[in-house]
């Protein structure tokens, strides 16, 4: 069986960590963060208070208290800047400089 891999250069991760991360995100995102687990990622939207979509994402739990939003790389900086305005009120922090991860896609038969 052959598998193929490719680097997903147009995708990026935006990391957040801290004891209140999921509570903070519950008030910011359209998905129910209580359903997030290390086995279950969640799709969702991040919107302005007026309902304008900032980005769509896939929320991943990398470790307890450490999550990442997988989103289009061109939206990462604006999304981080907008989240940074509100995260100061929670026991969470945005790891905006943590950009050493690379995303890859895998496909093949079966």
Write the layout of secondary structure elements.
Layout lengths: L3 E4 L3 E7 L3 H6 L15 E6 L5 E11 L2 E7 L3 H12 L5 E3 L8 E4 L3
Antiparallel strand pairs: 1-7, 2-5, 2-6, 3-4, 4-5
Provide a descriptive summary of the structure in words.
This protein has one domain: Aminomethyltransferase beta-barrel domains (Alpha-Beta Plaits, 2-Layer Sandwich), CATH 3.30.70.1400. Helix content is 16%, strand content 38%. The protein contains two helices and seven strands, in the order ββαβββαββ.
Task: State the gist of this model.
The chain has about 110 residues and is an alpha+beta fold.
- Put simply, the count of helices is 2
Name the CATH architecture: 2-Layer Sandwich
The sequence of SSEs as H and E is: EEHEEEHEE
Q: Going across the major beta sheet, what is the strand order?
A: 3-4-5-2-6
CATH class group: Alpha Beta
The biggest sheet amounts to: 5 strands, antiparallel
Reported by name, the CATH topology is Alpha-Beta Plaits
């Amino acid at each position: 069986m052959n598998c193929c891999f490719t680097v997903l250069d147009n995708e990026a991760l935006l990391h957040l960590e801290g004891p209140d991360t999921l509570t903070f995100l519950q008030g910011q995102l359209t998905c129910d963060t209580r359903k997030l687990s290390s086995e279950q990622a969640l799709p969702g939207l991040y919107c302005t208070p007026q309902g304008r979509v900032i980005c769509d994402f896939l929320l991943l739990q990398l470790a307890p208290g450490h999550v990442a939003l997988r989103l289009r790389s061109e939206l990462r900086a604006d999304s981080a800047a907008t989240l940074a305005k509100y995260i100061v009120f929670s026991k969470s922090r945005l790891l905006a400089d943590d950009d050493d991860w690379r995303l890859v896609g895998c496909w093949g038969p079966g």
